[in-house]
């Protein structure tokens, strides 16, 4: 694992722990690890193995790719969606990131139009979206 990725994973798991309000001991106990081993993961001095990353994802109820996420904005969005939204919203996020930048723009524009129609009390009409 590259050092940049290793450090990002360390930051991500520390952020998750803080957001959820756990101590290192609580997370380590939940993963059946020594606290000192877990602390090394958070500092980036040790790389968690695949099994540990899967266990972390299960512990925090996030996807494995959230733990490995290198883009801070996307990481935070993934946490928000996984913590507060249903599986359908996670699917929508996954689909969004699979789209081209043009497709993402089209989807966002269509969502804005739908929101404006709903806020104004209009009944939204079906307009097929063309994605390039």
Characterize the structure shown.
It is a single chain. This protein has 8 helices and no strands. With 132 residues, the protein is mostly helical. Helix 2 crosses helix 3. The two termini are 35 Å apart.
List keywords for this structure.
about 130 residues; mainly alpha; disordered C terminus
Brief characterization of the structure:
With 132 residues, this protein is mainly α. It has eight helices and no strands. The radius of gyration is 19 Å and the shape is elongated.
Q: Which helices and strands, and how do they pair?
A:
Layout: H1 3-20, H2 24-31, H3 35-43, H4 50-60, H5 64-67, H6 72-84, H7 87-98, H8 101-119
Helix pairs in contact: 2-3
Termini separation: 35 Å
> What characterizes the major β-sheet?
none
Helix content: over 70%
Number of strands: 0
Total helical segments: 8
Mean pLDDT: 83
> Which descriptor suits the 3D outline?
elongated
> From the helix content, strand content and strand pairing, which structural class follows?
mainly alpha
Q: Secondary-structure element sequence?
A: HHHHHHHH
Low-confidence stretches: 126-132
Radius of gyration, CA atoms, in whole angstroms: 19 Å
């Amino acid at each position: 694992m590259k050092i940049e990725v290793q450090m990002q994973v360390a930051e991500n798991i520390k952020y998750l722990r803080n957001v959820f309000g756990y101590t290192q001991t609580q997370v380590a106990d939940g993963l059946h690890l020594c606290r000192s081993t877990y602390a090394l993961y958070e500092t980036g001095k040790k790389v968690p193995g695949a099994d540990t990353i899967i266990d972390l994802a299960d512990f925090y109820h996030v996807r494995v790719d959230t733990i490995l996420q290198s883009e801070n904005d996307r990481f935070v969005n993934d946490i928000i969606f996984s913590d507060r939204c249903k599986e359908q919203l996670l699917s929508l996020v996954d689909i969004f990131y699979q789209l081209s930048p043009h497709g993402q723009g089209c989807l966002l524009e269509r969502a804005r139009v739908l929101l404006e129609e709903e806020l104004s009390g209009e009944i939204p009409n079906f307009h097929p979206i063309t994605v390039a």
